[in-house]
Amino acid sequence: MTTRPRLVRSIPFWILLAGSAGVAGYGASMVTGTLDSMTTTLLDGTATGVDVYVGQSTAVVGAVLIGAGVVGLLLTLAVATAATLRPVAAPEVVEPPQADPDSELDDGDTPVEAPADDDTPVEAPADDEIVDAEQTTSDRDPVRAG
């Protein structure tokens, strides 16, 4: 299973967001600049055909850019919403190994309690713990095995 980066680290997401906001902002500046210019020249009575007819076309292009920017921002919102619906892999919980309460060793290397004196009797190993030295040597060293 491949893992996808979080949306915050997704470069295409940020490009879509910044591009949409930039296009909408540029369209808004086109529309306001053109409409201000048209309004001023029409009220002054100094408007020419270029101001009126080209200004209308420029305002329409600006409005289209605003619409494209808004659509891009809505797509960004939809992508962000869809990213939250993605299933997240549950982290594996690894528990530390539990110590055996009957064990005399705390970490496998050192005894918990050292014998108090040398008079303590030593227990003989159980029958299944007795290992033949000849057998273990031949198992480990293939030269001596044959």
Kindly describe this structure.
The two termini are 49 Å apart. The chain has 146 residues and is an all-alpha fold. The protein is rod-shaped and about 120 Å long. The model has no long low-confidence stretch (mean pLDDT 79).
Question: Secondary structure elements and their pairing?
Answer:
Elements: H1 11-44, H2 49-85, H3 133-140, H4 142-145
Helix pairs in contact: 1-2
Keywords:
rod-shaped
Average pLDDT rating: 79
Shape: rod-shaped
Q: Tell me about the biggest sheet?
A: none
- Which consecutive residue ranges, at least 5 long each, have pLDDT under 50? none
Give the radius of gyration. 41 Å
End-to-end distance: 49 Å
Instruction: Tell how many strands the DSSP assignment holds.
Output: 0
Number of helices: 4
Query: Percent of residues in helical segments?
Result: 55-70%
Structural class: mainly alpha
The portion of residues forming beta strands comes to: under 5%
Q: Helix-strand pattern, N to C?
A: HHHH
Task: Give a brief outline of the structure.
It is built from four helices and no strands. It is an all-alpha fold and 146 residues long.
